[in-house]
Write a structure and sequence with these properties.
This protein has 217 residues and is mainly α. 65% of the residues lie in helices and 7% in strands. The chain contains 6 helices and 3 strands. It has a 3-stranded antiparallel sheet with strand order 2-1-3. A hairpin with a 2-residue loop joins strand 1 and strand 2. Helix 1 runs antiparallel to helix 6 and helix 4 packs antiparallel against helix 6.
C-alpha cells in the first residue's frame, strides 16, 4: 500500500509541475511579445530625445536636424528638415508612439503659435481621428494640401521646451518597459522556486518509496 501511495503522490507532483511549467511558458511567450512592442516604443523616444537635445549635445552639433512642429488635419507632427533623420523617425514610429507624440506636441501649439488645421470649404472632409499608423511625411508648406487640408510648420523654439516634453513621454514608456521587466523577472523567480520545491518533493517521495521496497524485500 505504501508503494502505491508513493506512486500516486509522485504522479500528483509531476502533474502539478507540468501545469506550472505550461502556465509559465505561455505567460513568458505573451510577455516576450509585449516586451518587443515596448522596446520598439522606447526606441522612438530614445531617438527623439537625442535629436531634440540642446546645442551642447554632440548629435545636434553634427546632424543639425532643424526640428519643426507641423500642424495638419490629423494633428501635430514632428518634422526634420534633414530627410535622413525624418526617414529614420518614420521607420521607428509605432502606432502607440505616434499617438503619444501627437498628444505631447499638442501641448506646444499655443507657445509656438501653430495654426489649427482647417477644412477646405469646397470639400465635405472633416478632421479625422488619430491614425493607427505613421502618417505619410508631407513636405513643409503653408499652401493648401491637395487632400483639402492646410499644413503649417514652425520652428520648435527653445530646445528645452520640446526636450522636456519628450523627456516626459520617454519616462512614461520607460516606466512601462521597467514594469514589464520586473514582472518577467518575478515570474521567473516564482517559477524557479516552485520547480525546485516540487522536485525536492519528488525526491523525498522516491526515497520513501525505496524504503518501502526495502522493507518488502
Amino acid at each position: 500500500q505504501g508503494i502505491v501511495d508513493m506512486d500516486r503522490e509522485r504522479k500528483d507532483a509531476e502533474e502539478r509541475l507540468e501545469k506550472v511549467t505550461t502556465e509559465f511558458t505561455e505567460t513568458r511567450f505573451e510577455n516576450a511579445r509585449e516586451m518587443t512592442v515596448r522596446k520598439n516604443d522606447l526606441a522612438v523616444f530614445d531617438f527623439i530625445l537625442q535629436a531634440s537635445a540642446c546645442k551642447d549635445n554632440a548629435f545636434i552639433q553634427t546632424e543639425k536636424p532643424n526640428l519643426q512642429v507641423c500642424q495638419s488635419r490629423d494633428g501635430p507632427t514632428l518634422n526634420f528638415n534633414n530627410p535622413n533623420l525624418q526617414a529614420r523617425l518614420e521607420r521607428l514610429m509605432t502606432p502607440q508612439t505616434q499617438k503619444a507624440l501627437r498628444e505631447a506636441l499638442g501641448q506646444m501649439e499655443k507657445p509656438l503659435g501653430l495654426v489649427q488645421a482647417r477644412e477646405d470649404p469646397t470639400t465635405t472632409e472633416t478632421t479625422t481621428a488619430l491614425p493607427t499608423f505613421a502618417a505619410e511625411v508631407i513636405p513643409v508648406s503653408e499652401d493648401p494640401h491637395p487632400a483639402g487640408q492646410w499644413k503649417k510648420c514652425t520652428e520648435t523654439g527653445p530646445c528645452s521646451l520640446l526636450h522636456d516634453l519628450m523627456s516626459i513621454e520617454w519616462g512614461k514608456f520607460r516606466d512601462g518597459f521597467d514594469e514589464l521587466t520586473a514582472e518577467m523577472n518575478q515570474n521567473q523567480q516564482d517559477y524557479d522556486n516552485t520547480k525546485r520545491n516540487v522536485n525536492e518533493e519528488i525526491t523525498v517521495i522516491s526515497e520513501q518509496k525505496t524504503k518501502h521496497m526495502e522493507v518488502l524485500a
